[in-house]
Each structure stands twice: as structure tokens, then as C-alpha cells.
Hints:
Elements (H helix, E strand, L loop, with lengths): L1 H13 L32 E9 L2 E3 L2 E4 L4 E8 L4 E5 L4 E5 L5 E6 L4 E6 L12 E6 L1
Parallel strand pairs: 1-4, 3-9
Antiparallel strand pairs: 1-2, 4-7, 5-6, 8-9
Bound molecules: copper (II) ion (CU).
Copper (II) ion (CU) binds next to loops.
Amino acid sequence: xxxxxxxxxxxxxxxxxxxxxxxxxxxxxxxxxxxxxxxxxxxxxxxxxxxxxxxxxxxxxxxxxxxxxxxxxxxxxxxxxxxxxxxxxxxxxxxxxxxxxxxxxxxxxxxxxxxxxxxxxxxxxxxxxxxxxxxx
Length: 136
Ligand SMILES: [Cu+2]
């Protein structure tokens, strides 16, 4: 009969863990956080770091080149008025309010040429404020 006990234990241990008790009662909880869960992207490359200064109306450096799979860490700030630094394809959107450096990162998960653009209206040249990210 020993194997039967073992089987019962296995079944009990592999039962999905949820909030429902056997009697159907559900525990009261804090509201569930509805923020989208960040799906981890597999990092195959190395971690590469860049420092980017935004200004009216451009970025220095204006081109960043990385390898596919790299984890890209960007530390950026503004030289003058508030700017943004957005790379839509990788979900990056930094707010560079002043000279205080802000750091954000993403995984360059696909090859191609992408733009980083300003997401905060900053003057007459805002629309043309652009840098280039090359993922090779
Ligand atoms: Cu701008």
C-alpha cells in the first residue's frame, strides 16, 4: 500500500496552487496589480552601455550600434530643455527633464535600423530630433 500513499502525495504536491480552497472559499486579497507583466527576453549577447546627451535638436551620439541580443543600457540627460528618448520598437521611453542622468535598458531582440526620437515637445526642431539605433 505504500505506493498508494506516495501517489496521493504526488498528486497533492502537483495540484495547482491558487486562491481557491476545497470548499470554494476565496481569500480576500489586495487588488491584483493589473500592470502588464514584462516578459523577459532571452539575452544572448553582452551588456553594452551608452551615454546619450539630448539637446535642441538632436542627440549626442546620434548613432548607436549594437549586436542583436545585447542588453542595451542607456544613461541619458538633457543639456537644455526637457526632452524624451523613445525607441518605439523596444518599448523604451525615457524622460530627460534636466541634466540629471536617467538610466533605462532594453534587449535589442531584433536586427534592423531604428530611430530614437524625442517624445516631449521641445521647440521648433522637435519633429526632426532623431537618432539612429543600428542592431546588427
Ligand atoms: Cu523634443
